[in-house]
Amino acid sequence: MSEQLIVVGGGAAGMMAAYAAASNGCSVLLLERNEKLGKKLFITGKGRCNVTNACDPQDFFSYITGNAKFLYSAFYAFDNSAVMDFFEAQGIKLVTERGMRVFPSSGHSSDIIRGLKNALERENVKIRLHTRVQKIQKEPDGSFRLLDASGQAYHAAKVILATGGMSYPATGSTGDGYGFAKAFGHPVSKTRPGLSAMVAAEAYIHKMQGLSLKNVRARIFDGKKLLYDDFGEMLFTHFGVSGPLMLRASSIVGDRLFDTGATLQLNIDLKPALSNEQLDKRILRDFEENHNKQFKNVLNRLLPSKLIPAVIFVSGILPERPVNEISKEQRMQLIKTLKCFPATLTGLRDFTEAIITRGGVGIKQVNPSTMESKLLPGLYFAGELLDVDALTGGFNLQIAWSMGYLAGLSAAEAGLF
Questions:
Q1: According to the 3-state scheme, what is the secondary structure of 134-171?
Q2: Are 375 and 47 in contact (CB under 8 A)?
Q3: Is 414 helix (H, G, I), strand (E, B) or coil?
Q4: Residue 415's pLDDT is what?
Q5: Is 354 exposed, middle or buried (0-12, 13-18, 19+ CB in 10 A)?
Q6: Quick one: average pLDDT of 226-247?
Q7: Is residue 1 very low, low, confident or very high in pLDDT (cuts 50, 70, 90)?
Q8: Of 37, 7, 8, 33, nearest to 20 (Cα)?
């Protein structure tokens, strides 16, 4: 079986690469190891698929946490506006939500996958499912020979690797592409979970499992050094902390936790809209209105019920103490607890829960203008396989669309068929 181009991997980058190449006159075979295309795409955004982010293109690169400059050519070849235009051309209505995050208006990621599949079919892309590539060889004539797990051989003038990283391995992201890249001399940097929930040591954190907090401020320190400072929504879990605010934090501080085994200090401002003085007045008012009640029974107007036992514990104030007996010093300690609620971060959750993979195929040996290998003509890379990543909000999928499109376009336009 011989094709002009074989794309290995039917995720976001692979499907877009196959579409871009086929729509520019190239015959394309797309090989996917799973029983369907876009298996990981199906679960992104909690099943809603955060397609891209509608931020100003000039602002896009500020959300890239790894090797942003490498993306310039790919992004401007197929930017966020182009991505939205593409999906709307497939008949998919999009909606822009808080943080400029773009979703299908239906709220179903399956619509995005269906739109891509229909586009591939219109461009006559051949698709083979249940096909896991196990070996790729460069032939003497410059073409490529691929072998799948059943021993079936495929031949192509060019190959695009879009096999994904290591996150959510149940979707097929098990790092196959790293082995192919290494075999052709490409360096692969250490991989670690990205956009991952983080483990906290304290039992009182674990007891708040399921509690979500909005509009809080999180600061993370390594000793006295401030590593992260941001506002947003977070979630307490049976192992630690998660939610958008903590996932973003993991892209900034996660390498310290994962690579060095360091412990970091998380301080949460539970009332960032109030100064210490304003918060003191609020507490005094609540105390005066409930002066005969016990301390544990007067915080319900200030805090969610699940948070109250933890705040009492950290404050050190006896829960049964009548509020009219609480001293100014104890009140100041309560304010400190509310403005600087502590947790000790000890690690990341593993790849089974991480949204993306950090690290991967090094970018120095990949041409950013074409996505072609600098070591092996005719071999291209796209998507999470490469050492490029971003914060949450649709940016990582935009990277996949942009890289995939540029790789497919470049393969088709090279004119070596």
A1: EEEEECCCCCEEEEECCCCEEEEEEEEECCCCCCCHHH
A2: no
A3: coil
A4: 56
A5: buried
A6: 97
A7: low
A8: 7
